[in-house]
Amino acid sequence: MVRERVLLSEGSSLTARETMTILGSRGIGVDVASASGWPLASFSTWCRGVRRVPSAGRDPVGYLRAIDALLASGRYRALLATHEQAWLLAAGREHLPHASGRLAVAEVSAFEQVQSKIAFAGLCDELGIPQPAWHEVRCEADLDRVGYPAWIKAAYSTAGRGVKRVGTHAEAASAWRALGADGAAVMVQAPARGAYRQVAALFDRGRLIAAACSERIGLGVGGSAAARLSVSDPTAVDAVHRLGRRLSWHGGLTCDYFADDLGRNRFIECNPRTTEPGNAAEAGVNLPLLSIALATGGRLPRTPLIARAGVRTRSTVALALGAAERRGSRRAVLRSLERALRRRPPLQGSREVLTPVGGDPLSLAPALVVVGSLLARPRSVTALADSAVSAYAVTPRIIDRLRS
Q1: Distance separating alpha carbons of residues 289 and 387, to the nearest angstrom
Q2: What distance in Å separates the CA atoms of residue 312 and residue 352, rounded to the nearest whole number?
Q3: How far apart are CA 354 and CA 338, in angstroms?
Q4: How many Å apart are CA 254 and CA 187, to the nearest integer?
Q5: How far, CA to CA in Å, does 365 sit from each of 35, 123, 215, 314, 371?
Q6: 258 in helix, strand or coil?
Q7: Residue 1: predicted pLDDT
Q8: Which strands make up the sheet holding 28-34, listed edge to edge?
Q9: What is the pLDDT of residues 89-113, one digit of tens each?
Q10: 172-181: which pairs have CB atoms within 8 A and are 24 or more residues apart?
Q11: Predicted local distance difference test score (pLDDT) of residue 334
C-alpha cells in the first residue's frame, strides 16, 4: 500500500532511477517530472505517474512554474532534486511558493561556490582540503603550470563531459580551445593517483546528518562508478563535513576524490546534490528517505549516520555502457554483462541497484533497449549517454536566463 507520494525533479538520470527503486520498494509512491513522456525512471512498477513539464534547459521559468503547480495540487509530501535541477530550484525560489516545507536545497550563493570546478578548487585551498595541483587557464602558457599528463576541465560540466586528459602541450591547447569556446572558464589539473571514490553527505544548515563513502569497482561511461564497494573513510567524511559547515549547506552534497595506498585523499570535484544513492542505501544510509525528512521537518538522527563498509552494488546496464565506450565492441558488452550477471570478481556478492528486475519487472524494458542498441551498434553509446545528459543538464546560461 502506498502511504505517501513524492515528486522527483527529473526522471532521466541514474540517480532518479535508483531513487525510484529505494523509495518505491519501501511503499512510497513516486511521480516523475519530465519533459519526456518515457524517461528512464518511468519504467518501474513503483512509478505512479510521469508529469509533463517544460524542459528546464529551454524554459527554466516554465519548468519552475509547472513544478510549483504540481506542488500546489497537494498530492506530494516532498520534492526531491535528483540531479542538477537542485541548482535551478535554489536559484528560482521566487517561482516556487508552494515548495516551502517540501524541498531541501542550499542557498544559491552556496551553490555558486561549488557548482564550478574552479570555484570548488579555490574553496578546497581555502579550507585546506587536499587536491591535485591546479591552475585556472587564462592564457596558453598556463596550460603548462602542472606538467603532463594533465586534465583540462571546463568549469561547468556534468557526467564526465567537459573533461579531457592530455599528454602534451599541443593536446592541451586543442582541448582548451574546444572547452573554452565562447569564453567559458577552463582549468588545468594534475592527475590524482589511487582508487576513485565518492563521499555522499546530507546536511541540515551545515550540520552533518549522514555520510557514505564508496569506491569504484566497475567502470561506467566517462569513468563513472557503475559498480561500488562501500568503504570506511573518516578522513573523507571529515573533509566533506568541513565543506558543508563552511557553506551552511542544506541538502545533499557529493564529492569525488582519489585515495592512494598510503591513505592520502585528493579531492577533484563536487556535485552539489545527492548522486546515485543505491550503494549508500544498501549500506544503511537511506539518503532519499532522510532527504524527505529533512525537507518536511521530520525526524533526523541526532548524531551523523555513517554507512557501513563492505557492501557491493552494481548497475549492470551502466557497466555495459562503460564497456561499449572503452572497447567499442559487442564482445566487450557481452563480457561485461556476463561478469555482472554471474557476479564475477570484483562483483561477487553485489546487488543490482539500477534495474532490479526481480522486484521491479518493468525495469527490464529499458535495459533490453539499451543492451540491444549496444549490441547492434556498440559505438552508439555516445548518443545514448548524450541524450540522457541533455535531459537533466543545467548550465550557467540557464541560471542567467532565470535571473534576467
Answers
A1: 29
A2: 9
A3: 17
A4: 20
A5: 20, 43, 29, 18, 10
A6: strand
A7: 39
A8: 47-52, 28-34, 4-8, 78-80
A9: 999 999 999 999 999 999 999 999 9
A10: 172/143, 172/144, 172/148, 173/140, 173/143, 176/137, 176/140, 176/143, 176/152, 179/152, 179/153, 179/154, 180/137, 180/154
A11: 95
Of the given ranges (35-49, 150-164, 241-255, 334-348), which has the lowest mean pLDDT? 150-164
Q: Provide the H-helix boundaries in 25-84.
A: 60-72
pTM to 2 decimals?
0.93
User: If DSSP codes are grouped into helix, strand and coil, which group holds residue 33?
Assistant: strand
Give the three-class secondary structure for 36.
Answer: coil
For residue range 299-326, list pLDDT tens digits in order.
999 999 999 999 999 999 999 999 999 9
Our CA dihedral for 19, 23, 29, 30, rounded to 10 degrees, sits at -10
Residue 150's H or E segment, with its range, is: strand 150-154
Question: Which residues make Cβ contacts (< 8 Å) with residue 290, sequence separation at least 6?
Answer: 202, 209, 210, 300, 305
- Looking at residue 390, what is its pLDDT? 65
Residue with C-alpha cell 542550499?
Answer: 106
The C-alpha cell that represents 231 in the structure block: 568503504
Q: Which has the closest alpha carbon to 147: 128, 172, 119, 124?
A: 172
Rounded average pLDDT over 32-46: 94
Edge to edge, the sheet with strand 163-166 lists 134-136, 186-189, 150-154, 163-166
**Cell reading at 177:** 580551445
Residues comprising the chain, all counted: 404
Amino acid letter, residue 112: E
Task: Identify which of 345, 334, 341 has the alpha carbon closest to the alpha carbon of residue 358.
Answer: 341
Gap between the Cα atoms of 260 and 275, Å rounded: 23
Mean pLDDT of the chain: 93
Q: Is there a contact between 305 and 4 (Cβ–Cβ < 8 Å)? A: no
